[in-house]
Backbone:
């Protein structure tokens, strides 16, 4: 996938984390998956349509998800993934994709986003679509996150 | 700034928590929580908050419509509109109906508190 489609998402994760006071993001390996599969405990999925079509997913272990939700909600104790933490992680995904959509608009690309869906559980394997997917490993002070971009361009 | 009565209007429970925790830490009283514009209009009548944080996109009744109805009840109502990326057209409409304070998501709790302090002190905020 061309970097012009990947970088806006990486930039927006970094930007949103900074705005929310969640710390810095470091980009690790970028690799290709034959299909859009996420394997961590919790995956937030959001659809994109317009000049860019497909799905974006943030996938992370429970520990990372709880730490992010807690930090977003000003240190509130998050011991399980409940309605409140799902709401926080949904907001996070919305903000990241919203900011990426704004960056795409500067390239004259339209990217409309859908509300996020959140799936979680132990030993999960979520198959979102058969589209070839670019995965980006991201690390933060709160734990690791995998950004998955299954876009038809 | 103690004693300020705040109403939080948002369909996201997490946003209520973020704003409430920051507000209480700064001595505000959260007098009402509404999860859509319809609830906000009804609760405004009964609680008369000093400041309202108003999300734009919500089910049942959106934030712009609710703001119009609240400003019809009280043209001096102080509304801090919380906008997201892509809400630029709605923000323009909100300015046309007299809303002068906006905050773009993502924000931290302290950003909200600073914005509310500025509103109470009568400064124009963006």
Residues:
């Amino acid at each position: 996938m061309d970097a012009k489609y990947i970088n806006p998402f990486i930039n927006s994760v970094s930007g949103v984390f900074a705005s929310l006071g969640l710390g810095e993001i470091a980009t690790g390996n970028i690799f290709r998956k034959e299909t859009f599969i996420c394997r961590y405990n919790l995956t937030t999925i959001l659809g994109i349509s317009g000049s860019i079509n497909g799905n974006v997913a943030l996938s992370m272990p429970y520990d990372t998800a709880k730490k992010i939700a807690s930090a977003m909600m000003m240190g509130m104790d998050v011991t399980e993934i409940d309605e409140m933490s799902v709401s926080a992680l949904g907001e996070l995904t919305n903000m990241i994709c919203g900011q990426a959509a704004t960056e795409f608009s500067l390239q004259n690309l339209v990217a409309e986003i859908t509300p996020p869906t959140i799936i979680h559980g132990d030993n999960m394997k979520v198959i979102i679509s058969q589209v070839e997917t670019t995965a980006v490993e991201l690390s933060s002070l709160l734990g690791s996150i995998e950004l998955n971009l299954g876009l038809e361009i | 700034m103690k004693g300020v009565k705040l109403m939080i209007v948002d369909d996201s429970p997490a946003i209520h928590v973020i704003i409430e925790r920051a507000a209480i830490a700064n001595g505000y009283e959260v007098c009402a929580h509404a999860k859509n514009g319809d609830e906000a209009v009804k609760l405004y009548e009964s609680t008369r908050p000093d400041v309202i944080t108003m999300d734009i996109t919500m089910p049942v009744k959106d934030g712009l419509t609710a703001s119009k109805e609240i400003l019809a009840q009280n043209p001096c109502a102080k509304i801090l509109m919380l906008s997201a990326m892509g809400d630029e057209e709605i923000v323009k409409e909100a300015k046309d109906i007299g809303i002068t304070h906006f905050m773009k998501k993502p924000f931290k709790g302290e950003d909200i508190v600073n914005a509310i302090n500025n509103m109470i002190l009568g400064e124009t905020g963006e």
The two ends of chain A are 9 Å apart (CA to CA). The CA atoms of residues 49 and 126 of chain A lie 21 Å apart. Strands of chain A lie at 25-33, 36-38, 42-50, 53-60, 111-113, 117-120, 126-129, 133-140, 143-152.
